[in-house]
Known about the structure:
The protein is α/β, with parallel strands linked by helices. About 35% of the residues lie in helices and about 25% in strands. It contains eleven helices and 14 strands. α10 links the parallel β13 and β14. α2 packs parallel to α11. The chain is globular and about 55 Å long.
Amino acid sequence: MSYKLIALDMDGTLFNEKKEISVRNRVAIREARENGKNVVIATGRPLIGIRKVLDELDLNTNEDYVIAFNGALVQNAKTGEVIYKSVLTLNDYKFLYEVSKDLDVHIQALTESYVTTPVLNPFTQVEADLNGIEIIKSDVNTFPETETIVKVMFVDEKEKLDKVISLLSDEVKSKYTIVRSSAIFLEFLNLEANKGVGVNAVAVAKNISSHEVICVGDAGNDIAMINYAGLGVAMGNAYDEVKRIADYVTDTNEEDGVAKVIEKFMLKKVI
């Protein structure tokens, strides 16, 4: 199979544990592009939060796209033009706020440019620091209706979120795409938003079929795109549920697992 596009998760996949991109990963991405392959970042983060990464990898041209907010927005990497959008409403935020109060868990919402929360907490600070975005403390019930809410998140200690997940009602589960993007982040997205839908939007824009796509990830929010891909790849450090549904398991994010996928399946190198 000749693969034409590879979609890469960032945390736990492209990044090592120091949040760095290894030399081998950078070289493999550059060589793939030099050979006419498409490389796209698929992340839970906003576009504004990964600009430095795009610049580092030269994935910042008019020909490049970013799958942001776990697929809720797909944007041109240079201009920010949206080619796919599936977001939430203020009523969704208010509904989930009431759920969060019942479950005694912190809540936050992401707009296209900042994070908002009714109660300042260390987990929202982690979100802001990861993406280099502002925190705006705001009452949910007076939040402006004109603002776009891309996703809502329950954020708290791992043990608290483990419990919260087990207590979510069938109503909540039926209304949203729900993904655990990290130990402290539980995300609620529009039902039509996930990384698989996002990768498909890029593939359609590039006139590429799903069987010509590789998707690589490590966590629950990567499962949809791994299922979508012609070749779905789990990192060696991936959650067990991700490995179970993957077509192939590469090495860990500390062992250049991304580079090894590109070299083996796109560049056809003997490794």
